[in-house]
């Protein structure tokens, strides 16, 4: 049975819904901190199309396509009809598996459809995230006894989702009250109110005068907004006493912060220098980094932040009582007992070597995850973890089931994990959008470090328990609305050794790790250290690890680890990734039914990564039978987006006893198959650039018909060889004409340029797209590098003013055209000379077809488009100028010849 995803996929609808609204996944990611957001629009489409059959009747095909397109208009759109169609397509029952579930975005869509779903992940942090998103909300908790605290509200909610939401609100409020009470000795009130928080800075001893001074990167506090003036501060220092203090004032900062670019002997010092407020001595980056690595940094309280009765944020110097309270918190932390014989109060889990590019604090001397906070913050989290454990025991003692206690404490820990994003030395104070606490993950998957940072207190305001728990509750409220479906089975395990029997699932739908894009375990170990402490009583299985540093296990993590710093034992190499991803794909092949598909969502721009991925799919005994592009990554919700377009690929177990194939025959079959599919792609409105990516599916399907493909000498051909061919076949199938001239009629360099303009115009594209296009054109990148130059964020077709080429009779048409555009403002004589040098005329069909195409395809306001239209308007005059220049040249040549002859007679 052919599945829908092997023949059609709602690419346009996925792209349209991935950036915002229900299909973006923004509500889902608000529940728990994890990486690599998969838009729900793509997850839903991949799941539906993997479960539906593809009928032979064109009318039935159209009916199912329309149904899926309507289903892409909302979270539960066309829910009943979809369930009926899925059941009809899977008479033995529908079931799905995601062995790389992450936070659970893909299995969530199976759960919402009422399809039996299994989710597996190697990371215990991801397992918790997936459980809270895909299992707990769909479980019926209405038979659980009432909570032993909170206000009496009469009858308990009868809706499972309402019951869970109500209990979470009660628990979060209770934890907030208990936590505030537990921490009140170390957070004194100011004017009978709890401060929002405190700005801290690390201090170092000046290497010139010996006095300690704070490292602060910005003096801005509040940006001017409406009638409210800006606010700032500066550090005032008294050299005689060695005392400094923060001075708050209205207006923008007028002084340079202590951490800034220094000028020494008229030259800018590389990196930010720490400039002493007492003597002005600059400490270059290497120096102040070394001082912190030598543990010479000491944290100092700089400012206190309040929220007044109007809800506005104000700043002041901390009181003596507040400074003493912070000091006493250090004493209290030192006396905190361990959670268990193997789990001390302060995290002692170590940061593995080679993590300088992922764990920013390690560059500045942090050795363990207990080094990430000031002592009062650490004490606050220790108290919070104890409260969650105590609450779990209390709930269990009053009759709540073990699983419901796990669920409630799991959601409480989700608040802790989200709070951690704004609660370490990387949580910088930010003025954008009003005063806020910054996120540790400025770049997705990398924890930042800052010399000055903000500590949220136990009152209200960004970063506090009240704020973060409200945020999680809002996410739950959104997700639980109109809840339908069944719970997912969530397990911790390795994709290389699935616990399931053979041929168990209708479809495996997964989003595997992308090479070296994100180091999931290393980036989430901070969460893991506190997750263990919050849940060691209710989820003890999550705390089990064999990692040498006490963190998450990484021996079978399928990534390529980018190492910075010393890491002699790092095993997560490309060889490791390729071997284990092949094992994982082989396991997927084993557990999928004969009539099912393995659907892989993958996005990477580099041809080399695709080569290795296809090799892994082939070694796993799978063949690709469909591939569909969608623009799913442009939102960049959690840090920078590495890619914009992802492919949703359908694979099947390779048929047994396949024959060998010949390269020439396979190439011909690929071209024929893509030409056949092109008719549908065009009918469905697929953009040409999307067709290039979709071409991988039919190409690999053809290759998969053979056990191996041999060249004329009998040598095996790498399957990756056929991807560029597939892209070229799209160009052939489109039968592109340039002003009634077939594209193939142009020289190779011009053909490349015109095809690029046909696809992308003047838009900036990823650098990898240039590599793909040169491969498809059979050219070396050096042959066209001057036509598509580097820009910020990628590559773009060159402007005529930046183009330089030798114009002679061998010049390509594109070079002549660009040169004509460049000299067009210099007049007819200049353009005529270009035609003359190139040996072209006003009747050169290919040159003028290229000029017309460029004039039409580039944006109307593009400077070159204007120039090309100028050239076209004066085409005949340019030809006349070229003829006149040629005649003048001939006359000059004749005159010179006569003069030379006369000289010989003398």
Automatic annotation (TrEMBL):
GO terms for biological process: methylation. One of its GO terms (molecular function) is nucleic acid binding. The keyword Methyltransferase applies. SUPFAM superfamilies: S-adenosyl-L-methionine-dependent methyltransferases. Keywords: Methyltransferase, Transferase. The keyword Mitochondrion does not apply. This is DNA methylase. It comes from Mycolicibacterium sediminis.
